Amino acid sequence: MLVVDLIKQEWRKSFRSQGFYKNLAVSIMLGFFTLYIAAILLVIGFSLTKVLEKADNVLTPLELFEGAMLYMMLFGLALRFVMQQLNTFDLPPYQVLPIKRSTLINFLLLKPLFSPANYFLLLTIIPFAIKGVATYYSGSVALRFVLSFILMVWFNSLTAAYLKRKFGSNLLSIVVLFAILTGVAALEYFKIFSLFSFSKMLYSFFIFRAFGLWFPLGLVIAAFFLNKWFFHQNYYPEKFNSKIRGNKTSTTELSFLKRFGVIGELISMEIKLILRHKRPKSTLMVSGFFVFYGLMFYTNDVYAKSNGMLFFVAMFMTGILMLMFGQWLISWDSRHFDSLMTRNIPIKTYMLANYYLMIAFNIICFAVTTPYFYFGMKIVYLHLSAFLFNVGVNIYLLMYLSTYNNKRIDLSKSSAMNYQGTTYKSFLIVFPIMFLPMLIVWTLSTFFSLAVALWTLSIIGLTGILLRKPLINACVNQFNRRKYKLAEGFRESA
Predict the structure, then answer these.
(1) Fewer CB in a 10 Å sphere around the end CB: N or C, the chain?
(2) What whole-number distance in Å separates Cα of residue 120 and Cα of residue 118?
(3) Where along the chain do its domains lie?
(4) pLDDT digit string, tens, across residues 239-260
(5) Mean per-residue pLDDT for 48-72?
């Protein structure tokens, strides 16, 4: 079958590429992390039945799971819309071969369904089906339960791909999607309409009726042909690109930055780079979701006395844009790095532009997280101390350590499931920045008090702000030592 042959070619292409072996250390680390997550999912799967039995004395574990299935489907669809990378491949070489257009389209649509990531949650679903479904009902019901989950994954994958191709993954689309999810949650919370009851009824029909699976299978087929229709309308690259861009030329201008001279122009270029390319734009969009990270910790009494963890959360939220952007601070410019180095732009000016941009990121994050001050003065002090430490210490660490990351980044690809430019050095950059302050706070608050810990880090941060000039000069000198190795690394394709 030709589609299977195309899938084999893609697998061979990924394993034979130079980037696979250059980033072998990262692949091994990710492999261990994947095994760790797999073990957690298996433990959840085998313990989920007992947890659900204790959660409700009336409904069975399966009935509770059925009621949550539509919520899981909507959340999964939203997550895929934001994070799932659209499947692409080099089309022109195949267009000149005697291969039917429909075969190439089928390959593009079916390839994501073969991704192992789609079936990772089966490590939880299958043990639950054995313990929580087969025990209460029968093996055939458990089998239909697993199949219905797989069909839901297929439907989400195909639907998210269509929505992303049709409407794009811009900020407006994400806001609309978030508004829909919020509306559904509000209907359930105010008891206007219970999606839980409807979901339980619907999935009971799928699982307990012998012909029930034909309905979700029909939805999968409909989503498949909807994607096929879109590709038939926009098959040729020039037409597809005009569909995505809407035949509009971007006119983003940040004229107010021109008053700051060359530094302002460089900042303007970096902002345009973020707004016009998938990888940096999606990275910063995803980081926006971490603003809600505090709701998991500030509202939980378990972490009320864990001062080190609370400071970690505060520093993470008030500096998330800086951390996400800063670990690849120089790599974002890898595509035009040689051109940048040949221009009459002093290295110090280039580094200052990045410095001020990351300060702006910190100010934005601090302002956005001010609603957390509602939880008390302790949170106010945590955020203020974390902000000062980010501005006075972490910025310089990112500027200095980012010179060791010399892997090229393709800006046209999104950040979801994309590890291009990520090496073991990326982890070494992030670990001291995130976990060393957490350790300092835990140690000082244990032997002295939280106030002593926060004052210590705040003073260190203020000292870093006052010593801005020598610290930036140290980063500039480090850049000059590494610039030829950076240029050499950026010239290599992944």
Answers:
(1) N
(2) 6
(3) 2-245, 255-491
(4) 444 444 444 433 345 555 656 6
(5) 85
pTM: 0.52
In sequence order, which residues have a C-beta less than 8 Å from that of residue 48 and are 6 or more positions away? 61, 124, 127, 128, 131, 132
Do 269 and 336 touch, CB atoms closer than 8 A?
no
* Residue-wise pLDDT tens digits, 82-97: 767 666 655 656 655 6
From residue 129, alpha-carbon distances to 141, 152, 155, 382, 464 in Å are 9, 16, 21, 44, 56
Enumerate residues 6+ apart whose C-beta is below 8 A from 219. 151, 155
- The CA distances from residue 213 to 75, 144, 147, 217, in Å, are 22, 7, 8, 6
Instruction: Report the distance separating Cα 148 and Cα 368, nearest Å.
Output: 40
How confident is the model at residue 221, as a pLDDT?
92
Contact indicator for 392, 303 with CB cutoff of 8 Å: no
CA distance 243 to 58: 52
Distance separating alpha carbons of residues 251 and 155, to the nearest angstrom: 37
| 117 contacts: CB under 8 Å, gap ≥ 6 | 417
Least confidently predicted of 69-78, 167-176, 353-362? 167-176
Contact predicate 122/454, CB 8 Å: no
What contacts 24+ positions apart, CB below 8 Å, involve 158-162? 158/109, 158/220, 158/223, 158/224, 158/226, 158/227, 159/77, 159/223, 160/77, 160/80, 160/81, 160/84, 161/84, 161/86, 161/87, 161/109, 161/112, 161/227, 162/223, 162/226, 162/227, 162/230
Q: HEC profile for the chain? A: CHHHHHHHHHHHHHHHCHHHHHCHHHHHHHHHHHHHHHHHHHHHHHHHHHHHHHHCCCCCHHHHHHHHHHHHHHHHHHHHHHHCCCCCCCCHHHHCCCCCHHHHHHHHHHHHHHCHHHHCCHHHHHHHHHHHHCCCCCHHHHHHHHHHHHHHHHHHHHHHHHHHHHHCCCHHHHHHHHHHHHHHHHHHHCCCCCHHHHHHHHHHHHHHCCCCCHHHHHHHHHHHHHHHHHHHHCCCHHHHHHHHHCCCCCCCCCHHHHHHHHHHHHHHHHHHHHHHCHHHHHHHHHHHHHHHHHHHHCCCHHHCCCHHHHHHHHHHHHCHHHHHHHCCCCHHHHHHHHHHHHCCCCHHHHHHHHHHHHHHHHHHHHHHCHHHHHHCHHHHHHHHHHHHHHHHHHHHHHHHHHHHCCCCCCCCCCCCCCCCCCCHHHHHHHHHHHHHHHHHHHHHHHHCCHHHHHHHHHHHHHHHHHCHHHHHHHHHHHHHHHHHHHHHHHHCCC
How far is CA 48 from its chain centroid?
27
